[in-house]
């Protein structure tokens, strides 16, 4: 990755947004016997997920690789949505995981596991109460209002495993938000917005949860993942509208997360319908 031309200083001159320290991140995360094998920080890229998938499928990255970008120009969310934010205003990173001993049928838990890990890590390091909106959004409270401050996207990387990408708004100010429904750790009253310790805390939490889940051969009950996700899920107990593939919609109360990580809706006609993919709109408390 070629560093940005020095003449483009204006994009990097915000003193409230210092660059990440790649060497310190490696010292804090890469250790003998640990999950994380390498940390690369690039000034700017289109999408860390795209880059890491390409490296993994090309045999140039293995499990435990971490790719971080100070800025993403074509960051991806679910359903091909774009994720944009000013340079150095957030944490934009992808990791490569390859849980070979876990049945592939349970790999669908990886984005939910990452959500639990991110929420846990940020609670410890930023002092911000976070909640998870099924399946992959991180919510914070700003002025008594629920707002999205982060998202997770998992993509298969052929036989190399799964690339999980995370985007978290850290220091975005109100006038920088892409949409009014967005938020950031700063706006949610974080006790710290120093991205280095925040990133270390999130990745250590992810290593811990991934190790626990892998040791349980992906069993969400034995690993405690299903219970913990449900406890932190803001979608449960709400009446929601699920916008499903094929332009189908289902409205009902979100009553459970099942063993496959699907959201279970209790509809008005007494049917319990599991939702495995789709957009969820929170309507009201049940």
What would you say this structure looks like, in words?
It contains 5 helices and 14 strands. It has a 7-stranded mixed β-sheet with strand order 1-2-5-9-8-7-6, sandwiched between helices. Helix 1 (22-29) runs parallel beside helix 4 and helix 3 (110-126) packs across helix 4. The model is unreliable at 1-12 (pLDDT under 50). The chain is α+β, with helices and mostly antiparallel strands and 286 residues long. The longest helix has 21 residues, at 195-215.
Name some characteristics of this structure.
about 20% helix; about 30% strand; alpha+beta; five-stranded antiparallel beta sheet; about 290 residues; seven-stranded mixed beta sheet; 14 strands; disordered N terminus
Short account of what is shown:
The protein has helices spanning 22-29, 48-57, 110-126, 195-215, 225-231, and strands at residues 38-42, 65-69, 75-76, 82-83, 90-97, 131-133, 137-142, 145-156, 162-169, 238-244, 248-257, 263-267, 272-275, 279-285. It is α+β, with helices and mostly antiparallel strands.
